[in-house]
Amino acid sequence: MVRKTKQKEAIFQVLSSAESPLSPAEIQNRASLLVPSLGIATVYRLLKTLKEMKQVVTVEIPGESPRYEISGRAHHHHFYCRKCHQIFELGKCDERIEDLAPKGFLVQEHEIILYGRCPSCAP
Ligand SMILES: [Zn+2]
Ligand SMILES: [Zn+2]
């Protein structure tokens, strides 16, 4: 179905140009500029498909609904603003973090989420 493909492409395009992980509602907002009449249920369904196809990944923050970003991005971390609930992408990584594991443990990967206030919400 042509229409379905167009909707999926719009979602993919929105995520490709996003500067940080987006919620389904944010994705719907931006994608509806490309494909008007894009419903939230469709966004959820297509995100599920894109995730199964490994084209998008979820960013999970405990107690928050998952956000989505394009898969295969360079290694990065996230900052979660407790006031506006936005998630920001952090480009920096200190690989010495893996030294936290005691001797004898093999670290295969790590995930870091920093919590606090973003510049707009900082007191
Ligand atoms: Zn904020
Ligand atoms: Zn890292």
From TrEMBL:
High-level lineage: Bacteria, Pseudomonadati, Verrucomicrobiota, Methylacidiphilae, Methylacidiphilales
Pfam families per UniProt: FUR
Keyword DNA-binding included in the entry's annotation: yes
Protein name: Transcriptional repressor
Family: Belongs to the Fur family.
Transmembrane segments: none
Keyword entries, A-Z: DNA-binding, Repressor, Transcription, Transcription regulation, Zinc
Keyword presence, DNA repair: no
InterPro entries: FUR, Fur_C, WH-like_DNA-bd_sf, WH_DNA-bd_sf
Domain of life: Bacteria
